[in-house]
């Protein structure tokens, strides 16, 4: 197998349900991770490595994925988005409707903000 050219980090963090920030895993990240791995296998996309990761900090818009070296971040990803993300990973354009930026990292639930 060749050395991967792209890495996709999928947050599968699971917090206690009482925590004020949501967990990507509770929002379906595990299913997204599995769907990405399955689609990667179907496409024989050996230049891509799908990695299960911890918190990527944009919890309010999870499930969150980070694509490197592209520095593309996706939020609110569902299993239905996987084919379009794989198209990106295989040389296509990023999926604009899923991209997140600095603003999404600043989101906090009210109980975690200073008044």
- CATH C-level label: Alpha Beta
State the fourth-level CATH superfamily: Glutaredoxin
Unreliable stretches (pLDDT < 50, length at least 5) are none
The description of the largest β-sheet is: 4 strands, mixed
Q: What number of domains?
A: 1
Description:
The structure is a single chain. This protein is an alpha+beta fold. The chain has a single domain, classed as Glutaredoxin (3-Layer(aba) Sandwich), CATH 3.40.30.10. It contains three helices and four strands, in the order βαβββαα. The protein has a four-stranded mixed beta sheet with strand order 2-1-3-4, covered by helices on one side. The N and C termini lie far apart (53 Å).
Quick overview of this protein structure:
This protein is an alpha+beta fold and 115 residues long. Helices cover 23% and strands 18% of the residues.
List the helices and strands and how they pair.
Elements: E1 6-11, H1 29-43, E2 48-53, E3 64-68, E4 72-75, H2 82-89, H3 102-105
Helix pairs in contact: 1-2
């Amino acid at each position: 197998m060749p050395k991967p050219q792209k890495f996709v980090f999928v947050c599968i963090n699971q917090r206690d349900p009482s925590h004020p920030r949501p967990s990507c895993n509770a929002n379906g990240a595990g299913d997204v991770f599995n769907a990405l791995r399955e689609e990667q296998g179907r496409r024989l996309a050996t230049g891509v490595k799908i990695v299960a990761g911890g918190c990527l900090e944009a919890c309010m818009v999870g499930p969150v994925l980070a694509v490197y070296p592209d520095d593309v971040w996706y939020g609110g990803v569902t299993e239905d988005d996987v084919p379009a993300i794989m198209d990106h990973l295989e040389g296509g354009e990023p999926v604009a409707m899923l991209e997140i930026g600095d603003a999404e990292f600043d989101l906090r639930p009210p109980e975690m903000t200073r008044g």
